[in-house]
Write a structure and sequence with these properties.
Pfam families: NUCB1_N. The protein has about 130 residues and is mostly helical. About 65% of the residues lie in helices and about 0% in strands.
């Protein structure tokens, strides 16, 4: 019954207005499938979440969850690359610094585009927290 209640809450969540809102929601959904992480999330206070303490719990989630998070991150990196390419195509400037463009996306570690690590969760939390 409790899981049905959580599902109901997910449906009612308003759009955050963040350009990475879908990625954020998918990461949360996947993390909540891990019982240990879901329990930690439910008992953590806002300061534990913002400080990155909760991000360290990512090392304890199941392999299946980590694999799904890796896949989500690769999809988000691909989406961001398409945005950058579209921006570059519209500007038609060959002097664009690709790394500088990637750095503007503070919600993930662009230096490691293949795996979702505790640093990624920490960066996602901090990016959302800075917005609110």
């Amino acid at each position: 019954k409790g899981e049905g209640h959580v599902e109901g809450e997910k449906v009612e969540n308003p759009d955050t207005g963040l350009y990475y809102d879908e990625y954020l929601r998918q990461v949360i959904d996947v993390l909540e499938t891990d019982k240990h992480f879901r329990e930690k999330l439910q008992t953590a206070d806002i300061e534990e979440i913002k400080s990155g303490k909760l991000s360290r719990e990512l090392d304890l989630v199941s392999h299946h969850v980590r694999t799904r998070l890796d896949e989500l991150k690769r999809q988000e990196v691909a989406r961001l690359r398409m945005l950058i390419k579209a921006k570059m195509d519209s500007v038609q400037d060959t002097g664009i610094d690709h790394q500088a463009l990637l750095k503007q996306f503070e919600h993930l570690n662009h230096q490691n585009p293949d795996t979702f690590e505790p640093k990624d969760l920490d960066m996602l939390i901090k990016a959302v927290s800075a917005r609110y």
